[in-house]
Amino acid sequence: MALLPIILAAGQGTRMNSSMPKVLHSIGGKPMLQHVIDSCEQLGVDKLGIIVGHGAEQVKQDAKVTNPRWVVQSEQKGTGHAVLQAVDLMSDEDVVIIAYGDVPLIKTNTLKKLSDKLEEASLVVLTTMLDKPFGYGRIIRDESSRIRYIVEEKDANVQEQAVTEVNTGFIAAKGANLKRWLSEIKPNNAQGEYYLTDCIAMAVEEGGLVESVICENPLEVEGVNNRIQQAKLERVFQKEQADNLMLQGVTLADPARVDIRGHLSAGKDVFIDINTIIIGEVTLGNNVVIQSGCMIENATIGDNTVIKANSVIESAQIGNSCEVGPFARVRPGTVLKKQAKVGNFVEVKKSTIGVGSKISHLSYIGDTTMGDEVNIGAGTITCNYDGANKFQTIIGDKVFVGSDTQLVAPVTISEGSTIGAGSTITKNTPANELTLSRSKQMTLKGWVKPVKHNKKDNK
Ligand code: UD1
Ligand code: CA
């Protein structure tokens, strides 16, 4: 027996008002379709059917799937018609699971319940209870609670409309059965569509048993048709992640004001203040503190490090016991060794900052290899770019650079050098000496301050 999930992703999503296919819109920084693909793949499947239509090329390009079987549905004539396009994928013995590219929060475990239950039924439907079932297909059961059929809102009578158990759209059935039922579906309904849901009545007519799995949390099976629904599920998804982090030992100042768009793994006793955004793969060590308003993307941050307010860190490795920010910008390719400090209004790019080295204020350090225990004065700039090419700056251990210095790369500041404030350094400096470039200070004796002209005289 092989599991074959088939994801419906052909719809245009008109109500998104977007030039991008609906299923590529994101929840938690990841396309909705990708959420569904990932949930399906975690079932342990060897192939995955995806039915595409609107924006098919873009969808195919953006989706990350191990073993996709793409099926194009060029005209959308209903859910039954969509699945019918994929019958060639189905072997008779396959357990086919129908899922939806615009229902992003579906859990692997729920899909597994569907396929497990199929062992004792010819069709399993995932249902949920809604106080306001308007718009959904209703699950109609008989006196002994057996499912008889599903009726769409537009085809339902008043009694049927009163039913609050609804069809989520997710079903599981054997390939052989689905193929037979699908070939018999007729578009005889209010919408003139081929309804996948007609399979339920067909199974019953054949004397088969139709079972259900009732999804406890309706949000898990909620679909997205517009950006309001997308935003709603975004909050649901973020809350889930925040809850998981807190259970793992992370303190969130306000779980509603942290957004994880990717994956955050955190050590013990991490504190994250409000309005932090985590993007991509981020790892935080023990006792890390992230103050408010930080954006951290694809980064590793070591134990006991503090990232102060409003800092932006991207593709960087920050060591243990470092201090970054407030208002620091750490750009790709930066490595901070332990106890390094990058202070306010400092930008660091593609540079290694040695153990205990400090760049405390208002500096740009790019394409630089800096040794240990270096002190960079306020306003120091590595001039790494001549308009055409980038050049390296090498700074040895225990260098002291005075404030407002320009280091014009390529240049090496040897170990133990001291650079006088206000220097423009264009040549390598010798070790352990004071080097400076500075115009001589002078005073003009008897100089007279300008006086403001009288306005009348000015006319
Ligand atoms: C469908 C169900 C309904 C259920 C509801 C849950 C049917 C007939 N009805 O109704 O019982 O309560 O979902 O949301 O199945 N799609 C395609 N190709 C098509 C048609 C649809 O890929 O030709 C995709 C859509 O992009 C969408 C999904 O299938 O992702 C559902 O289609 P939609 O037409 O919205 O079905 P509903 O009317 O909502
Ligand atoms: Ca719909």
Tags for this model:
single chain; 459 residues; alpha/beta; Spore Coat Polysaccharide Biosynthesis Protein SpsA, Chain A; UDP N-Acetylglucosamine Acyltransferase, domain 1; 11-stranded parallel beta sheet; 9 helices; 17% helix; binds uridine-diphosphate-N-acetylglucosamine; binds calcium ion
Task: Give a topology summary.
Elements: E1 3-9, E2 26-27, E3 30-31, H1 32-41, E4 48-52, H2 56-62, E5 68-72, H3 79-84, E6 95-100, H4 108-117, E7 123-129, E8 138-141, E9 147-151, H5 158-161, E10 165-174, H6 175-184, H7 198-205, E11 210-215, H8 227-247, E12 250-252, E13 258-266, E14 270-272, E15 276-284, E16 289-290, E17 295-297, E18 300-301, E19 306-307, E20 312-314, E21 316-318, E22 323-324, E23 329-330, E24 334-336, E25 341-344, E26 347-349, E27 352-353, E28 358-361, E29 364-366, E30 368-370, E31 375-376, E32 381-383, E33 393-395, E34 400-401, E35 406-408, E36 411-413, E37 418-419, E38 424-425, E39 434-435, H9 455-458
Helix pairs in contact: 6-7
Residues 8, 10-11, 51, 73, 76-79, 81-82, 100-102, 136-137, 150, 152, 166-169, 195-197, 223 line the site of uridine-diphosphate-N-acetylglucosamine.
